Amino acid sequence: MSTTATGRRLPVPALDRLDQVTAALAATAGEYDRSGAFPHAAIQVVHEAGLLTAGVDPRFGGTGVNSTELATILLALGKGDPSVALIAAMTLLPHAFQQRQPWPEELYARVLAESAERPTLLNNARVEPDLGSPARGGLPATLARRTGTGWSVSGRKRFVTGAEGLSYFLVWAATDEETPRVGTFVVPGRSPGIEILPTWQQLGLRASGSHDVSFTEVEIPQENVLGITEYGVKAEQDNLAGGGVHVLVSALYLGVARAAQEYLHTFAHERVPTNLGRPLATTDRFKQTAGEIETLLSAAEQLVFGVADRLDRGLAVPGTEALAAKVVAVRHVTTAVQTGLRLLGNPGLAQANPLERHFRDIQSAGVHAPQEDTSLLTIGAAVLAAAAPGA
Q: From residue 357, how far is each of 31, 32, 271, 370, 372 by CA, in Å?
């Protein structure tokens, strides 16, 4: 255990037991996928293993795992249940990168005290019905209005992962001032005026509970604001600055692809067609496809963990390079799972087969902002600007 500023102890991350956590999540992943229910029990497993707060800095009572360890955790969780992994990632990453957007001291101490007692989930609420993703630019319609004691937040957000179980919503909003500012307003999950709208009916990640959330005159204290600033910072700059974080999210989809690969290997060894008289794993077709999948996944891992390692060693990782790693990693993991599915044919499409679920889940790998088109536009603009005469 690590002691927080309030004297309560955070669980130490069980990095030596990640295989056990993966197995525990995998045991319930199919049922959560079928029901779409919020995975309370699975989140409890992650909490008890100390993984939700693994990124908390030592000065706040945490162990402060590095980027490589974060990627390893997300890969393990994604291999077990990517819905749970995504919910956990949305909490893990704000803790790990808290220094980029510092929290008010008393508020953060309260969050950590709660985290020591029970799963305390955080997530950014940024996407809006009309605006879409802020990674593409634009002023949010969600408004924060000054009150006598703080702020009143009103608006609607989309795709808020883990909405039903969040302890704190990190709401991106604009102020109603004559010259609008934008910032992240920390809204406690049980505040009056919050309504979870059950809109999440997606192909994959069905248990992630990424519903719409409506905020109606939700009042918060004045200090519950992070990074408030004048509006006008280009989204492309934010995408480049956050490249390292975006790469880490890709690690959980590496986990999905590795789970799919494991099933494919098991199937290939166990399936013995009567007209062949030997396991499919002995055929050239299965060997060649297995080699293709491993090549895709090992290359993706080298990209993701290569960026993480350079961050850990304090080396500069250009935003263009980090975004490029994300783009290629997502392409590779998606292609790898699709390739395995084609190899198995009808058995791979059966709902009783986990490969069918892995195929659906991996389709979500490319939807996280910045999406591929935005990433490529950002990368292209940056490298062309750097190559301009006199640059």
A: 11, 11, 20, 24, 23
